[in-house]
Amino acid sequence: MKGGEKYNTGLVLSGGGARGFAHLGVLQALQEANIFPDIVSGTSAGALTGVLYCDGNSPKEILKIMKLQSKFDYMRPTVPRDGLLQISGIVKILESHLKAKKFEDLKIPLFVCATDLNNGQAVYISKGELITAVIASSSIPVLFKPMIINNIYYVDGGVLDNFPVKPIINKCNMLIGSFVNPVGYEESISGLITIALRTFMLDQTKEMVEKSKYFDVVIAPAELTKFGFLETEQADAIFEMGYKVTKEKLKDPGVQKVIALKLEA
Question: Rounded to two decimals, what is the model's pTM?
Answer without folding.
Answer: 0.88
